[in-house]
Amino acid sequence: MRKLFIVAFLFLAQLSYAQLSNIDMNGAPARLSGYSGVDGSPYLFEDWSRADISLSNAGLKENVAYKFNIYENELEVINEAGNKIYLNKAYVEYAMLERPSIVIANNTEQGLLTRLLFKKGFDMIDGVKADDLVNVIAEGEKYSLVRKFYSDLVTPPKNSYAPTPGKLFVFEERFFLIDSNNKVESVRAKTNNIIKSLNEKDADLAKKIVKDNKLDLSREDHLVLFFQKLNEA
């Protein structure tokens, strides 16, 4: 009887811990996937990776296993109890997401950042809600540059090769330049396009920064350096 009591106590303690962990991580249990039969992926990265996540009432959680569902704009994480949960975005202050190493290894694009900062509070951008997480490339008093990832669920037109077409996720990313007056402009990650999108008074300085530092603004790392120097000038 004593052994039965101890086992029951340990079970209840473990259950209590799991419930507390769910609360601590401010999330709800992960839902069953509703994407069966859908081509493509709703996730930014298909592989699990690690993140540092700051929560307004639970502090900084480091080295958390995550996947970012960009279709739902939700972070799916594994909490302290080993459960998959979706974080409540109302409590997420920011998230620093590591790119999976396999993504970097298999990508030919130069200058990829190994860690991506995601924040909310950019609802001045059309179609972005106050709690939506967007990738912040640069943030400063003069200019901020953010990137919104999209994974849209579409139904392709019927053709002879697909008499009964299914649905698929289509990946897209868009960059937005925000000036000190919160004016938002959609831009492309190209040197000439970004310089033309700046305030006219900053154009000459921007060209000098690019020339002196031999920057290519199609590269993520060069974008970070460019806006850092532009905001500090």
Describe it.
The structure is a single chain. The chain has 233 residues and is an alpha+beta fold. 25% of the residues lie in helices and 32% in strands. The protein contains five helices and eleven strands; from the N terminus they run αββββββαβββββααα. Strands 1-5-4-3-2-6-7-8-9-10-11 form an eleven-stranded antiparallel β-sheet. The chain is globular and about 50 Å long. Keywords: Signal. Residues 1-18 form the signal peptide.
What does the radius of gyration come to? 22 Å
Strand order of the largest sheet: 1-5-4-3-2-6-7-8-9-10-11
Helix/strand-derived category reads alpha+beta
- For the report, how would you describe the main beta sheet? 11 strands, antiparallel
What are the low-pLDDT stretches, counting only 5+ consecutive residues below 50? 1-23
Signal peptide: 1-18
Keywords: Signal
Keywords, separated by commas or semicolons:
alpha+beta, 233 residues, disordered N terminus, 32% strand, 5 helices, globular
Q: In a nutshell, what does this entry contain?
A:
With 233 residues, this protein is α+β, with helices and mostly antiparallel strands. Helix content is 25%, strand content 32%.
